[in-house]
Amino acid sequence: MADQREDAWKLGAGWNDTLLWYAKAIIALKGRALTDRTSWRYLAAMHQFDQSLWMHQGIIDHTTALPAQADMDVAWNQCQHSSFYFLPWHRGYLARFEQIIAATIAALHGPTDWKLPYWNYLDATNPNARKIPQAFLEPYLPDGITRNPLEDVPRYGQKILAANPQLKIPDIDLTAMNVTKFTGIFSFGGSPTDFSNPDIGVRGQLENVPHGSVHILVGGAPPADVDFGYLSRFETAGLDPLFWLHHCNIDRLWAAWMTKPGVEMEVGQQWLDGPSDRAFAVPTVDGSGLETYTARDTLAGGKFYPDYDDLHAGTGVAALLGGARMADIVKGSPVMAEPTVIGANSETLTVGTAAVETAVRIAAQERTALVAAIGRTAPDAPADEQTFLQLENIRGKGVAGGLQVYVNSPAGADLPEDRFAGSAALFGLSSVSAVDGGHGGNGITLVFDISDLAKRLAAAGDFDPAHLRVKIVAAHSGGDADPITIDRVSVLRQ
Questions:
Q1: Secondary structure tally for the chain: helices H, strands E
Q2: Architecture of domain 8-332
Q3: Packed helices 364-375 and 451-459: angle between N→C axes, nearest 10 degrees
Q4: Measured between alpha carbons, how far apart are the two ends of the chain, in Å?
Q5: Nearest to 437 by CA among 207, 211, 234
């Protein structure tokens, strides 16, 4: 074993030592009481906890003792989504989980240098990359007797990642790695927020794809929606051992992104030392107490700064020269003006099985400037001149699904690619839609960059800002019985 996090597929096929010891440690953690801060269930509840849902799933019962309320108030229900804290919070969460697992393995007389591996599902050089690593599919440990905790978890989705037309989720890709700004309404890392549980901001592009896509594609949901894959919901995601390898790769993509020349990383005090309204907390490695951390602790020199064996394979980022690391290249982001809403539709949309179209009216005083901006071409166009489409407060009861968005699609069933604005897997939709849940019922807000699409439409003579048509195609486990709703569809300019 090495002193760096490594690709699970490069550790050896089947039961390599890293994954075998991971499984043995999980068995040990599962044997600990929920009140133990180093137990499997306690660590999962830090991401999100729903007592009634956990009881329904048989994770706990009415006799299960919970930690003290003061402890739960600090450590549980912390998952940061739709926020520029999404990446740093998960980085600290992963790091302490890794340390607890490593300490457990050492106590079991295993290796003392165990590191959490990552699932590198976008490595084009590995023909197996998109497959769930085999150790997560075996029903038993190598002894043929012990139930395998890596496999013994509900998963109703795909064992090999690919587009899922039924759920309207396209294939995963590295498009997010091309976004240059960490913070903002259309950004790599998410929009500025306070502690984001409930979700209060806009999802970053990495959180959308591949993060959300992998959650839904693997977790899935059976047709009757009587159950769900644990990866498909915030409240149970941390109970799937694959969650940690998936998020390890998401963290590695962030590490790789920070080595790209020209990226603009967040350096503001609110992010570095926040959130100011509730601190992030993790158990100590021995479980004797809790300690807090900030985003600053996840950067170079911080206690949760990670080390990966490879920031090139499966990241879309060129190999670094001279051993440079993310700390050597990352640059701060200047303060950017927030985009302006220049038009919106006039009604809440209800999307069931059939596609829904709505008209977005651009304010009269904005039309001339918008048309002029769209007509400008490089090098005349300012670098930050962009047009966005925003879907606000998407809500629904379904636990697995996605949506696709088109602009000025012709009448009929055909959905031409040249009118495609974007797509998203609706990870956490049911969680963020429940008004009495931990996420406050705010739903999901998504933003798509339609700058190039608008230029193509204008070139084709089909861009009239007074009559912009947006078509939304959704597929989710709620269907017509429990459709999704979208409070508003708007167009923004920056």
A1: 14, 13
A2: Orthogonal Bundle (1.10)
A3: 80
A4: 48
A5: 234
CATH number of 340-493: 2.60.120
- In whole angstroms, what separates CA 302 from the centre of its chain? 23
The predicted pLDDT at position 2 comes to 65
Per-residue tokens: 89: 């919070």
CB 71 within 8 A of CB 290: yes
Helix (H) or strand (E) holding 101: helix 86-107
pLDDT digits (tens, 9 = 90+) for 323-352: 555 554 555 655 556 789 999 999 999 999
Kindly tell me the burial class for residue 112, based on how many C-beta atoms sit within 10 Å of its own C-beta (0-12, 13-18, 19 or more). exposed
**Strands 387-395, 349-351: parallel, antiparallel or unpaired by DSSP?**
unpaired
Q: For residue 328, what pLDDT is reported? A: 47
For the chain, what are the domain ranges? 8-332, 340-493
CA torsion through residues 292, 310, 214, 206, sign: positive
190: Cβ–Cβ under 8 A, 6 or more apart, which residues?
82, 83, 84, 85, 86, 87, 183, 201, 202, 203, 204, 207
The mean predicted confidence, pLDDT, of the chain is 91
Q: What is the pLDDT of residues 112-139, one digit of tens each?
A: 999 999 999 999 999 999 999 999 999 9
Helical axes 86-107 vs 17-30, angle rounded to 10° = 90
Q: Are 371 and 388 in contact (CB under 8 A)?
A: no
DSSP letters of 102-157?
HHHHHHTT--S-----B--TT-TT-TTTTBPPGGGT-SB-TTSSSB-TTT-S---S
Segment 203-262, tens digit of pLDDT: 999 999 999 999 999 999 776 556 789 999 999 999 999 999 999 999 999 999 999 999
